[in-house]
Design goal:
The protein is built from 12 helices and 16 strands. The protein is globular. Strand 13, helix 11 and strand 14 form a beta-alpha-beta unit. Helix 7 crosses helix 8 and helix 9 packs across helix 10. The protein is 41% helix and 18% strand. It is an alpha/beta fold. The strands form 4 sheets. The chain has a 6-stranded parallel β-sheet, sandwiched between helices.
């Protein structure tokens, strides 16, 4: 295995994970090959042993590596794993679907539900969907919906909650424990709870966006960061991390906290800052925490007479497509498949409690990233 020390990866499990994953995917680590020992990998990468352990655990969850007790860790024979364990099983799914269409866009929960049901059906299983959305009133609480699903004779429970918090997860876990059914959470941002979960990798989304902007020539990344939430913080952290290791100096500017709940004010501040940088001969780039933030800022810049600048969003809304905004889209198919695979591992008693983070997919459009 041709692995050299990588200074930028010191103490950083994501960098080790990315490097090993790339070697597996391009064939430098062949299928069936045995990895060097963990101490040897620690020495080669120049990182702590715990960093190597975490990287290997992530790649085992991604089914790229197989750890065999007493033998070692091997590159998986194939890049996929048949579901098998969900055959003839009945899966209870709690999600939000009745009110999940807005602005002509299919809501993430709906897309995730479709992906999960296709994966379960392909393996000969079936699903029982309990909708949290109540057209006649407020949202039904998670606990009641989980109880309803558990009463339907299910073998396992999946909660799809892209906007859920730790308290909701506690409610679901309490019901699953009481009824003796395995639980997996499919979330937008990993929850700080010891449960099996598949999540969207918001940190990686920020890193991807920053790398695209820098590659397009941006040297000051202005972040329009509304909605003070954990996923927002993770995306901004990813932008900062990518900027830190860029080969050229890159500055990241985020909004003052008092404006982060006010999109019009946030977009105005971003547009003014980008205009000032442009007038001073700088090289600004725009990262909208989502497509809405990016488009609102671009509208203001157009009103100022400024031409296209490098810009990125997250969501891939219909408006982003119509306007040619380069953006990042959740990998719904893989998220659904991975959730079902994790359910199978939970049923077999072999699932990890380390969240499996799935990267967003880049949707490049030439009007904002050439």
């Amino acid at each position: 295995m041709d692995t050299q020390p990588i200074p930028n990866l010191r103490g950083r499990w994501r960098g080790v994970t990315d490097d090993l994953r790339a070697k597996i995917q391009d064939g430098r680590l062949a299928h069936g090959a045995m990895l060097p020992s963990r101490p040897e990998l620690s020495r080669r990468y120049g990182v702590a042993l715990g960093t190597i352990e975490r990287a290997i655990s992530q790649l085992v969850d991604e089914r790229l590596l197989v750890a065999e007790n007493g033998r070692g860790t091997f590159v998986a024979a194939t890049g996929t794993e048949p579901l098998r364990l969900l055959a003839a099983k009945r899966l209870g799914i709690v999600c939000e679907v009745s009110s999940s269409v807005s602005e002509g866009d299919a809501h993430w929960d709906t897309n995730l539900l479709r992906a999960v049901e296709v994966a379960v059906s392909s393996d000969g299983g079936s699903s029982l969907v309990v909708d949290r959305a109540d057209p006649a009133g407020p949202w039904r609480n998670v606990e009641d919906c989980c109880v309803e699903a558990a009463a339907g004779g299910i073998d396992a429970l999946l909660v799809i909650g892209t906007g859920h918090n730790e308290e909701m997860a506690d409610d679901a876990l309490r019901v699953a424990t009481r009824h003796g059914v395995p639980l997996v959470y499919l979330v937008g941002c990993a929850l700080s709870r010891p449960l099996a979960q598949v999540a969207m990798d918001d940190f990686d989304a920020g890193m991807q966006a920053a790398r695209q902007l820098v590659a397009a020539g941006a040297r000051t990344l202005v972040c329009c960061a509304t909605s003070p939430t954990r996923w927002r913080d993770q995306r901004i952290a990813g932008v900062r991390e990518a900027a830190r290791y860029a080969t050229t100096p890159v500055v990241v500017e985020a909004l003052p906290a008092q404006l982060e709940d006010d999109l019009p004010a946030a977009a105005q501040l971003c547009a003014q800052r980008i205009a000032a940088l442009h007038a001073a001969g700088g090289a600004p780039g725009l990262f909208g925490i989502n497509d809405q933030a990016a488009l609102a800022t671009l509208d203001l810049l157009a009103g100022m007479g400024l031409g296209p600048i490098p810009a990125m969003g997250v969501d891939d809304r219909l408006a982003a497509r119509a306007r040619g905004l380069t953006t990042l889209r959740p990998d719904f198919t893989r998220l659904g498949e991975e959730a079902c695979l994790m359910l199978g591992r939970v049923l077999a008693g072999s699932a990890s409690r380390v969240p499996l983070n799935i990267p967003f997919r880049l949707v490049r459009r030439t009007s904002t990233i050439s």
